[in-house]
C-alpha cells in the first residue's frame, strides 16, 4: 500500500498539470451536468415492510384517483375577537377564498369548511382543505403564490389566516453560520501551518471535492429521487473529511521537508505514509455510511451512499491533487517549524538559530508534554475521561424518538401558527389524524366489516372522533379517519395506533377483513420502530467490519477493540447532549431551537454510522504514528509520546475544523439538519479531545507491549498493508549506497 501510494504521490507531483487538468475537467463536467439536469421531482418517502406503507400502497391501488402522494394545504381561518366564523361576513370571506383557491391549475379539490363540518365547536376557527395533483416538491411556484395570495386576501378582509401542510414545503437554507464554519477552518489551518499558501491547499481541494460531489448529486437528483437533505449531508461530510485528509498529507509533507528530503520525494513519502492512513480512514467512513442501507429505508440509503461517494472523492483528491498543488506551490510551502514571511517567519527562524547556537535543546511541544503527563498518570486520566463521558451520556436514558411535524417548526412560520390554531380549535390530535384502511375484499359482507371496525375504534381509549367509513367504487375497501386526543408526537398517540392494530386482528378473525393504519403519524411511528429494530444489527455490521479493517491496519487485537469501546462512549455522550438540548431544552435558545420535542427517529442510527467513521479517522491518524514509532524500535510508552509529538497538533486542528464545519449547519432552517450538525459537532469534540487525546494514550500506556499483540497464526494470515511506510524505509536502505543523499535523510530521520 505505502509503496504504491508513494509512487502515486511522486507521479502526481511530477505530472501536476495533467492531474490538475483531470480534476478541473471533472468539476466542469459535473457542473454542466448539474446546470442542465431537470429540476428534482418528487422525493418518495417509502418504508418497505411497514404496515403504514402497505396501507398507502393499497390506497394507490384501490383508490386510483385519490392522489395519495399529492401535496396538501390547510388554510386555517380565525374570526376576530367577539365574532364567529359562522357570521355572514366571515362566511362570505371564506367562501370567496375557497372559490379563489379552486381556480389553481394544479388543485385537485378544495373542501368548503361549512359543508365539510370543518368549523370548531365554539365557532371561532375553521379550515379549508386543499388537495393538489402533484407532490409538495413538484408544486410550481405559481401555485404556492396563489395559495398565499388567497390567504392574504382573507387577511385583508379582517380574518386571521395561516397555512399548514406540505404545500409550502421549500428547500431548507443553512444560514450564515455555514460560512462562519469554513472561516474558522481557514483560521485554524493558517495557525497550524504558519502559511497562507499551505493553509489554502486543504480548503481549495475540499471545495473542489464537494463541488464535484454536490454537482453530481444535483445532476442525478431527478433520476434517483434525491431530496435536498441528501446534498446537505454530503456537503457536511465532504467538507469536513476533505479538509482533514488534505491537512494530514500537507502536514506530513512539511515534516518530510524538515527531515531534509527533496520536494518530490517528500510528496511521495507524505502520500505513502499519511496517504495510507487517509485511505483506511476513508474506508471506515464509507463502510459506516454505506452500511445505512441495511436499515432498508430508501431515503436513508440514498443519503448514506451519496455522502460516501463524496468521501471517496475527498480521498482521491487528497492522494492526487494535493501533491500536484504542492508541486505548483514549490518553496512557498515551508518545512515544519518554519513560517512564511507574512506570518513572522524571519523572526522565528532567527530565534531558532540563536537557540541552536546556544546549544539549548528545543522545547517539547504541547502534544509531547501532554502525552508524557498521561503516560505518568494513566489510571487517573482514564477514570476521569470515562466518568466524564458517562455523566454526559445520562440524558440519553430519557431518549424519546419521533419525526418532526409542523408543531416542531419555529413559531415565526405560518405552518406552526396554523398548527397551533387547529390545536386550539379542534384539539391537539387534530393535527395528526390516523387513516384506517379496511380491506374487505375477502370478506363476505364488506359493509358489516366497515361498520364493525368503526364501532370497535369508537370504544378505544383516547379517541376523540371517528368518521363514517368511505368505501371505494368497488365497495371492497374503505377509509376511516380517527382523531386522537393527544398530539401526533405523543406516546399516547403511539399507544392508540397499536391499540387499533390489535383490534384489527380481532376484526380479521370475525370478518376476514384486513385493517391497516396509515397516515403521516402512523408512518412516523413505524419509521421509529423500524430504526430501533435495525440499530443493533447495523451497529454489529459496521463495527464488525471496521474492527476487521483496523486489525489489518494496526496488526493488533486490543487496539481496534479499544477504538470501538471508545467510540461507544463518545456516541452515547453525544446522544445525551442531543437529548439535553433538543428534548429537555438546555441551551435551546443558544442553539436556535424554538420548540423542544422528541429526537429525530433516525438520529441514533445516523450518529452511530457517521460518528463511528469519523472517530476512526482520528484513531487511524494518531495511532498509526504511534505504531510507526513502535515498529521502528521505540518502547511502547515512548511510542505513545512520539505519536503525540507528531500527530497531536494536526489531529487537534483537524478536530477543530470538523467541529466548525458541522457546527455551521446548526443555523439551518431545517430542524433535522440543525440536529445533525449539533450532534456531529459535539460527538467529534468528545471523541477527539476526550477519547483519542486522553483515554487512548492512557489505555495504551497501561497495556504496554500487549497493545500490539497479535496471534502468530493471524499475523501470517493477514495481508501486510504497511500503513507505517516500513517498506519505503527498507527500500531506501537497500539502495542507500547508490543514493547517499537519501541515506543521509534517513539517518537524520
Automatic annotation (TrEMBL):
Residues 336-363, 729-749 are annotated as: Disordered. It holds the Pfam family MMPL. GO terms for cellular component: plasma membrane. Its main location: membrane. It is a multi-pass membrane protein. Residues 196-328 form the SSD domain. Coiled coil: none annotated. This is MMPL family transporter. Keywords: Cell membrane, Membrane, Transmembrane, Transmembrane helix. The chain crosses the membrane at residues 179-199, 206-224, 230-250, 271-297, 303-329, 379-399, 535-558, 565-585, 605-625, 646-666, 678-703. The keyword Transmembrane applies. It comes from Streptomyces sp. R11. It is found in: Cell membrane. Belongs to the resistance-nodulation-cell division (RND) (TC 2.A.6) family. MmpL subfamily.
Amino acid at each position: 500500500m505505502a509503496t504504491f501510494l508513494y509512487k502515486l504521490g511522486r507521479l502526481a507531483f511530477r505530472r501536476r498539470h495533467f492531474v490538475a487538468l483531470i480534476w478541473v475537467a471533472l468539476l466542469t463536467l459535473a457542473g454542466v451536468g448539474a446546470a442542465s439536469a431537470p429540476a428534482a421531482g418528487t422525493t418518495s418517502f417509502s418504508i418497505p415492510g411497514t404496515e403504514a406503507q402497505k396501507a398507502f400502497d393499497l390506497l394507490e391501488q384501490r383508490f386510483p384517483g385519490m392522489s395519495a402522494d399529492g401535496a396538501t394545504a390547510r388554510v386555517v381561518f380565525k374570526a376576530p375577537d367577539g365574532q364567529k366564523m359562522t357570521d355572514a361576513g366571515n362566511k362570505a370571506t371564506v367562501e370567496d377564498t375557497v372559490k379563489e383557491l379552486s381556480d389553481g391549475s394544479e388543485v385537485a379539490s378544495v373542501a368548503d369548511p361549512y359543508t365539510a363540518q370543518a368549523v370548531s365547536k365554539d365557532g371561532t376557527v375553521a379550515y379549508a382543505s386543499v388537495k393538489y395533483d402533484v407532490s409538495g416538491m413538484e408544486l410550481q411556484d405559481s401555485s404556492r403564490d396563489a395559495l398565499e395570495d388567497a390567504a392574504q386576501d382573507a387577511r385583508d378582509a379582517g380574518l386571521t389566516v395561516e397555512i399548514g401542510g406540505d404545500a409550502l414545503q421549500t428547500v431548507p437554507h443553512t444560514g450564515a453560520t455555514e460560512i462562519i464554519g469554513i472561516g474558522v477552518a481557514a483560521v485554524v489551518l493558517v495557525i497550524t501551518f504558519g502559511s497562507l499558501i499551505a493553509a489554502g491547499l486543504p480548503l481549495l481541494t475540499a471545495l473542489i471535492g464537494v463541488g464535484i460531489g454536490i454537482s453530481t448529486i444535483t445532476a442525478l437528483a431527478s433520476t434517483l429521487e434525491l431530496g435536498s437533505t441528501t446534498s446537505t449531508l454530503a456537503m457536511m461530510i465532504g467538507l469536513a473529511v476533505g479538509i482533514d485528509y488534505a491537512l494530514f498529507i500537507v502536514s506530513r509533507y512539511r515534516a518530510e521537508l524538515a527531515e531534509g528530503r527533496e520536494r518530490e520525494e517528500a510528496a511521495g513519502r507524505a502520500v505513502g505514509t499519511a496517504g495510507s492512513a487517509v485511505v483506511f480512514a476513508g474506508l471506515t467512513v464509507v463502510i459506516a455510511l454505506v452500511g445505512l442501507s441495511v436499515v432498508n429505508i430508501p431515503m436513508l440509503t440514498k443519503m448514506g451512499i451519496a455522502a460516501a461517494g463524496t468521501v471517496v472523492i475527498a480521498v482521491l483528491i487528497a492522494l492526487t491533487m494535493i501533491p500536484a498543488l504542492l508541486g505548483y506551490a514549490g518553496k512557498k510551502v515551508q518545512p515544519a517549524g518554519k513560517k512564511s514571511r507574512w506570518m513572522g517567519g524571519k523572526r522565528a527562524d532567527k530565534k531558532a538559530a540563536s537557540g541552536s547556537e546556544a546549544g539549548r535543546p528545543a522545547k517539547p511541544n504541547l502534544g509531547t508534554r501532554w502525552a508524557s503527563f498521561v503516560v505518568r498518570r494513566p489510571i487517573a486520566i482514564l477514570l476521569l475521561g470515562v466518568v466524564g463521558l458517562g455523566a454526559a451520556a445520562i440524558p440519553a436514558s430519557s431518549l424519546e424518538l419521533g419525526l418532526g411535524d409542523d408543531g416542531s417548526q419555529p413559531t415565526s412560520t405560518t405552518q406552526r401558527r396554523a398548527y397551533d390554531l387547529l390545536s386550539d380549535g379542534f384539539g391537539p390530535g387534530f393535527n395528526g389524524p390516523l387513516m384506517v384502511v379496511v380491506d374487505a375484499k375477502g370478506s363476505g359482507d364488506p359493509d358489516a366489516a366497515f361498520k364493525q371496525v368503526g364501532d370497535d375504534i369508537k370504544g378505544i381509549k383516547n379517541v376523540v372522533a371517528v368518521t363514517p367509513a368511505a368505501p371505494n367504487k368497488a365497495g371492497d375497501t374503505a377509509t376511516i379517519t380517527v382523531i386522537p386526543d393527544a398530539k401526533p408526537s405523543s406516546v399516547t398517540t403511539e399507544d392508540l395506533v397499536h391499540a387499533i392494530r390489535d383490534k384489527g386482528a380481532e376484526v380479521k378473525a370475525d370478518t376476514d377483513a384486513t385493517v391497516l393504519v396509515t397516515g403521516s403519524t402512523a408512518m412516523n411511528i413505524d419509521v421509529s420502530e423500524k430504526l430501533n429494530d435495525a440499530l443493533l444489527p447495523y451497529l454489529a455490521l459496521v463495527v464488525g467490519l471496521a474492527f476487521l479493517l483496523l486489525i489489518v491496519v494496526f496488526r493488533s487485537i486490543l487496539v481496534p477493540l479499544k477504538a470501538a469501546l471508545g467510540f461507544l462512549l463518545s456516541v452515547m455522550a453525544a446522544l445525551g447532549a442531543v437529548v439535553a438540548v433538543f428534548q429537555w431544552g438546555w441551551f435551546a435558545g443558544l442553539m436556535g431551537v424554538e420548540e423542544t420535542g422528541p429526537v429525530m427517529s433516525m438520529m441514533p442510527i445516523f450518529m452511530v454510522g457517521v460518528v463511528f467513521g469519523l472517530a476512526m479517522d482520528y484513531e487511524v491518524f494518531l495511532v498509526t504514528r504511534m505504531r510507526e514509532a513502535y515498529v521502528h524500535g521505540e518502547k511502547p510508552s515512548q511510542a505513545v509520546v512520539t505519536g503525540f509529538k507528531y500527530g497531536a497538533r494536526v489531529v487537534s486542528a483537524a478536530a477543530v475544523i470538523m467541529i466548525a464545519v458541522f457546527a455551521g449547519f446548526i443555523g439551518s432552517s431545517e430542524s433535522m439538519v440543525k440536529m445533525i450538525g449539533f450532534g456531529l459537532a459535539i460527538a467529534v469534540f468528545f471523541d477527539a479531545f476526550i477519547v483519542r487525546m486522553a483515554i487512548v494514550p492512557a489505555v495504551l500506556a497501561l497495556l504496554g507491549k500487549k497493545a500490539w499483540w497479535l496471534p502468530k497464526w493471524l499475523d501470517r494470515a493477514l495481508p501486510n498493508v504497511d500503513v507505517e511506510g516500513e517498506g519505503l524505509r527498507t527500500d531506501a536502505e537497500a539502495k542507500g549506497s547508490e543514493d547517499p543523499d537519501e541515506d543521509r535523510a534517513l539517518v537524520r530521520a
